[in-house]
Design goal:
single chain; 272 residues; Ricin (A subunit), domain 1; 39% helix; toxin activity; Ribosome_inactivat_prot_sub2; protein synthesis inhibitor
Length: 272
């Protein structure tokens, strides 16, 4: 029976990749080699980047492409020996607006942020869930709200790392749902997946400590970068030439003149 169930789940994950138009990207949290994580982040960037668009003469930082019709979301699978939890990322912004996990009876439920993604879109990205099990999250997706629901004073209080991601995932998969566990998982998952794709700095910190958890030596810089990703993208587009800003920019941790000092991994497509 166990083999049958595992085979069925594997088939569902494969089918979800087909039904959503592109292969889902999977991170195996049981693989303790940094290259696994590095390849995972690279695949996300390659999946959402525009192959031709360049901002500010910065050729080594890709710009996100505009999604085609019917291909608005990217599915991310976070796999452990105890099961897989999936995220739905918006291809236009890379924000995560929904996730999929099993309950204590191993029945899939999809949870989504209202006004960010429709129930139809949730069912499209997570076809294995029934309409009755698509559930609205009754709080916001911003970091401030997630911190409060997780009962933390800032988004980096717990640190980052593969073990922490695996630990917080285990509290939302095949468990009774609680807001605290949910918000804690989302807070860590967003930073380990979304922010690591946006910022090479965060990816490199994870790789340096892999597979151990860690606290950064400069939480202020990391949080400031995360909070200013949209503004940074506009600044690079509007005011950088050959990777150098025309004037100093301060994104919360001192003046910056060179784009490379921001240690970017991906830029938002500002529609230009």
């Amino acid at each position: 029976m166990k083999i049958y169930v595992e085979a069925t789940i594997a088939w569902i994950l494969l089918q979800s990749s087909i039904w959503t138009g592109n292969a889902a990207i999977t991170l195996d949290l049981e693989e303790y080699h940094p290259k696994v994580y590095e390849d995972f982040i690279r695949k996300i960037r390659n999946n959402v980047k525009d192959p031709e668009l360049i901002y500010g003469g910065v050729t080594d930082v890709p710009v996100m492409r505009s999604p085609v019709v019917g291909d608005k979301h990217l599915r991310i699978n976070l796999k452990t020996d105890q099961g897989t939890v999936s995220l739905a990322l918006d291809r236009l912004t890379l924000y995560a607006y929904a996730y999929l996990a099993a309950d204590r009876s191993n029945v899939y439920h999809a949870y989504y942020f209202n006004r960010r993604i429709s129930t139809k879109e949730v069912r499209n990205i997570f076809p294995e869930v029934s309409n009755a099990n698509v559930i609205k999250i009754n709080y916001g997706s911003d970091y401030g709200t997630l911190q409060r629901r997780a009962e933390l004073h800032d988004q980096l209080q717990l640190g980052l790392g593969i073990q922490l991601l695996k630990q917080t995932l285990s509290r939302v998969n095949r468990r009774a749902r609680t807001e605290k566990n949910e918000a804690t998982f989302l807070l860590i998952a967003f930073q380990m997946v979304v922010e690591a794709a946006r910022f090479k700095l965060i990816e490199d910190l994870v790789l340096y400590h892999y597979p151990l958890d860690f606290r950064t030596n400069n939480d202020r810089m990391v949080i400031s970068l995360v909070d200013n990703w949209i503004g940074i993208s506009f600044a690079v587009y509007e005011d950088a030439h050959n990777g150098v800003f025309k004037r100093p920019y301060n994104f919360g941790f001192g003046n910056v003149r060179q784009v490379k000092d921001l240690q970017l991994g991906l830029l938002l497509n500002v529609g230009k």
